[in-house]
Specification:
By secondary structure, this protein is α/β, with parallel strands linked by helices. It has a domain at 4-95 and 164-251: Rossmann fold. Helix content is 36%, strand content 26%. It is built from 9 helices and 10 strands. It has helices spanning 51-58, 80-86, 102-112, 117-130, 146-157, 176-193, 204-210, 228-236, 243-251, and strands spanning 7-20, 23-36, 40-44, 66-71, 74-75, 87-90, 164-168, 196-201, 213-218, 221-226. It is globular and about 55 Å long. The chain binds adenosine-5'-diphosphate and magnesium ion (MG).
C-alpha cells in the first residue's frame, strides 16, 4: 500500500530543535517516512515523543530546523500554500469558539478555503450530514458533548476534501462509546473518499483497531514501524499479543510515558 509510486507523503530527515534559555530541546531528531495513498497511519509514542511537533511541521504551522517533505504533490518548504490546500488538520487541543454555532463554524471554515458564500453553505450542510451533525447546526459549540465537538472539528478538517487528514490525538479525553464512534467515522471517511489519515495517538487499542501501519516514535526518532500484527510478532514473538506488550518491549514504557515495571 505504501509503494513509492502511490505514496502521498514523503518525509526526509525532518528535525526540529527548540532553543530555550535553559538549552536546546531536540523535539524531532530525524524522521524519514513514506505514507501510501489511502493509508491510515498510526503515529504512536509516549507524551513528549515529538508527535505534535512533527504534525505541526507537516501541516506548515511550524518551520522545520532541518529536512524536508513532500505532501500531496507539494513541497513543504517551497510551496506551503499548496500543501495547505490539499490537507486537513485537527489539532490536539480544539480551537472552537464556544459562543459560535455549529453551522457558523462550518461555513466559516469553508469560507477560509475561499468558497463562495453559497458553496460554503452547501458544503457545510454536506459535512454535517456526513458527520451526523445536522440536528446540531444551531447549537453553540460550547453546548456540545466531547464526542460531538470532535466530530465538528473533523468536519472542519474535511471542509476542503483533503487528500491527507492529520489528526492529533483525536480521541483523548473521550468516553469509550465516543471513541468507538470516532474510529468508525475515520474508517468510513477513508473508505468513501480514499483519504489518507495520519493520526497520532498514545492509545494502543486505537492504533491496533484503526491503523494499517504503526510508526512508534520515542525521543524524536522512529524506533519501530510495521503493521500492528508485524510489531506484535517481531517484538513479543506472539501474534496474539496486545500492541501494549509490543510497545513495552520497544520503548520500555507504557504508552503514556510513565515508567512501567516489566
Ligand atoms: N514550543 C515549544 N518550545 C519548547 N519545547 C517544546 C515546544 N513544543 C514542544 N516542545 C518539547 O518538544 C518535545 C516534544 O513535544 P511534542 O511534540 O508536543 O510531543 P508529543 O506530542 O509526542 O507529546 C517535548 O519535550 C516538549 O516539551
Ligand atoms: Mg502531542
Amino acid at each position: 500500500m505504501s509503494s513509492l509510486s502511490s505514496s502521498v507523503i514523503r518525509i526526509r530527515g525532518l528535525t526540529r530543535t527548540f532553543q530555550l534559555k535553559s538549552g536546546p530541546v531536540h523535539a524531532v531528531r530525524g524522521i524519514d517516512l513514506t505514507v501510501g495513498r489511502g493509508e491510515i497511519l498510526g503515529f504512536l509514542g509516549p507524551n513528549g515523543a515529538g508527535k505534535t511537533t512533527t504534525l505541526r511541521m507537516l501541516t506548515t504551522l511550524l518551520p522545520p530546523s532541518g529536512g524536508d517533505a513532500e505532501i500531496a504533490g507539494h513541497d513543504l518548504l517551497r510551496d506551503p500554500a499548496g500543501v495547505r490546500r490539499r490537507i486537513g488538520y485537527v489539532a490536539q487541543s480544539g480551537g472552537l469558539d464556544p459562543a459560535c454555532g455549529v453551522r457558523e463554524e462550518l461555513v466559516t471554515q469553508c469560507r477560509l478555503h475561499l468558497m463562495s458564500r453559497g458553496a460554503a453553505r452547501e458544503r457545510a450542510g454536506e459535512l454535517a450530514r456526513e458527520l451526523g451533525l445536522s440536528d446540531l447546526m444551531d447549537r453553540p459549540t460550547g453546548a456540545l458533548s466531547g464526542g460531538q465537538r470532535r466530530r465538528l472539528e473533523i468536519a472542519m478538517g474535511l471542509a476542503n476534501r483533503p487528500e491527507v487528514l492529520f489528526l492529533d490525538e483525536p480521541t483523548t479525553g473521550l468516553d469509550p462509546g465516543s471513541r468507538a464512534e470516532l474510529w468508525e467515522l475515520v474508517a468510513r471517511v477513508r473508505a468513501e473518499h480514499g483519504t489518507t489519515v495520519f493520526l497520532t495517538t498514545h492509545y494502543l487499542d486505537e492504533a491496533d483497531a484503526l491503523a494499517d501501519r504503526v510508526v512508534v516514535v520515542d525521543s524524536g526518532r522512529i524506533v519501530a514501524e510495521g503493521t500492528p500484527a508485524d510489531l506484535k510478532t517481531r517484538y513479543t514473538g506472539d501474534p496474539a499479543a496486545s500492541l501494549q506488550d509490543a510497545f513495552l518491549a520497544i520503548t520500555g514504557r507504557g504508552a503514556t510515558g510513565e515508567p512501567v515495571a516489566i
